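Exercise 7b. Backbone tokens:
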């Protein structure tokens, strides 16, 4: 069986956040094998080697990926040594320097207000509704993403806002909507945007037994003997 050759990487560089573990998978690479990494009947394995500003961790039972753990607080470029085998680890490719960029991530620290809404109400969450810590100019060139959840639906979205329909019941008096922002290179961690759900105020005197109550006119008052 021919020795495999790593010819490149699918994304260069791979961007990862400061103090975040990066998972490197076989599918992050290009090789000279047209069937890589599926279909050829070959037993593909990937391996990483520790280097400057990072460590590696690979579970013995997982051969398709390994973890890259940058040095604490490190920001900058990494060249991660990686190699592959097509026969379960008997024959290995040469080492390949996988290009990784470790960057500061934007951080959503808070929201500008905590809205109170009724069931059936709509809410638009936009970039300017979030307080974000970043080294870049916010919200210029940032994008917003919301995730689905319980008690609300995403009706529509753009790159900078999302429209939400509040659903469910008052048994849960708040909704947590996970949102993330991207600064053009990397996504923040999710922040739970909080919406308080309140009961609608009474709109008038309730009907009795389903019958409308109407005060009689002066001409319908009962006759009184004086």
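Sequence design result:
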């Amino acid at each position: 069986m021919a020795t495999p050759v790593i010819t490149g990487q699918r994304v260069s560089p791979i961007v990862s956040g400061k103090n975040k573990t990066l998972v490197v998978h076989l599918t992050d690479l290009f090789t000279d094998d047209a069937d890589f990494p599926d279909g050829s009947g070959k037993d593909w394995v990937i391996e990483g080697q520790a280097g400057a500003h990072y460590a590696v961790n690979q579970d013995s039972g997982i051969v398709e990926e390994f973890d890259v753990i940058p040095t604490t607080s490190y920001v900058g470029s990494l060249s991660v040594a990686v190699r592959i085998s097509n026969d379960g680890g008997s024959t290995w490719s040469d080492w390949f320097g996988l290009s990784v960029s470790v960057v500061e991530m934007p951080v959503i620290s808070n929201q500008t207000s905590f809205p109170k809404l009724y069931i059936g109400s709509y809410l638009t969450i936009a970039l300017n509704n979030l307080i974000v810590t970043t080294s870049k100019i916010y919200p210029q060139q940032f994008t917003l993403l919301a995730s689905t959840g319980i008690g609300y639906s995403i009706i529509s979205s753009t790159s900078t806002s999302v429209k939400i329909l509040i659903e469910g019941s008052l048994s849960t008096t708040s909704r947590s909507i996970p949102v993330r922002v991207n600064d053009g290179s990397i996504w923040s961690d999710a922040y739970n945007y909080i919406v308080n759900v309140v009961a609608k105020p009474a709109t008038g005197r309730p009907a009795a037994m389903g019958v409308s109550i109407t005060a009689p006119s002066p001409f319908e008052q009962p006759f009184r003997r004086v």
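Instructor comment: The two ends are 119 Å apart (CA to CA). Confidence is low (pLDDT under 50) at residues 206-226.
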